[in-house]
Structure formats: structure tokens, C-alpha cells
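Consider this pair:
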Amino acid sequence: MAKKNGRNTRQKIVSAAWKLFYEQGYDDTTIDDIVFESGTSKGSFYHYFKSKDALLGSLNILFDDKYEELQQTMDPDTNAVEKLTFMTHELFKMIDTSVSVELLARLFSSQLVTHGEKHLLDRKRTYFKILNQTIRLGQERGELRSDISANQIVNDYAMFERALLYDWCLVDGEYSLVQNSDRMMPLFLHAYLPQ
């Protein structure tokens, strides 16, 4: 039970921080603001994060939570391609409306220069587990090609999503991330349909 409470506390801090970063901007958000918004304590904050900057690597937690939430709401009989398209649409809608381009760009740049953990590439993430599960089931049902390994499709899909996000950052969010992904993702996934 203590582990679950700790995870909930960490998630509260992360959720509150990213909400405030979006509303107030990163530089104008203080640790006190985050602690107040999350309903936690400074001790809890420093238990999970060394500094406010350490929160930049936590965006993957919000993404993973979103994927977990989406998986629970989807009909298990939904086609794998429809599931993947839906999950990207919903994740990108969340990003479009609650994550600033500046912060997403900071996340990408922190992942490029880090010598430590590359959170976005961590295969233990819920994100990768859900993708792997969805793709393997799609292959078993004949909805996706089986001549390409599930791991390879997962890697390709994750790389394509990152590419869409990276381009959105490069152009400073001048277009709708959701509309662009709704147009591009079906084209990308078409290559993985059975021949």
C-alpha cells in the first residue's frame, strides 16, 4: 500500500507541476506553487525530485498515465490500427491543450544532452508496454503484418510519434498537433497492414 501511496503522491506532484507550467509558464512557477497545487508537502516534493528542473524529465509520467487511462476506456475488440490512431489522437489533444511547446522542446533538449536516463526511451514505461500489447494482439488477429516483429513496429511507431512532436516544437506549435497527427498517423500505419 505504501508503494501505491508514493506513486499517487508523485503523480499528484507531476500533474500539478505540468498544469502550472502550462498556465503560468515554467519560469513563473515555484516549488511552493507546485506543493500547494498538488496538496502535498515540500518534503514529498524533494523526496521525488531534486529540483524544479528535475520535473522536466517527468512529462513521460503524464504521457504514460494518459495511455493507461485510454487503454481502460477502449473496447478490447477494437482493431489495433484504430486503437493506435485513437491513442495518438487523444495524447496529442492533451499535449495541444495542456503542454506548452516551450516545455516540450525543453524535454527533448534535455533528453539529447543527458548522460543519465533517457526517460522517453525507457522500455519499462507503461507507454511501451501498452504499445507492445496492442501490436502483438493486432498481429495475432491478422490486423497487422507479422513479417515485422512487434518490437520493430513499436520502435517505429514511437519514433514516428516523437518525430511529429519534434516537428511541432521546431515550428513553435504553428499548426494543430492533433490535426496533423490525424492526417499523418493513418498514412504511417498503412505500411504495417497485412500485404
About this structure: The mean pLDDT is 85. The radius of gyration is 18 Å. Residues 56-190 form a domain with the Tetracycline Repressor; domain 2 fold (CATH 1.10.357.10).
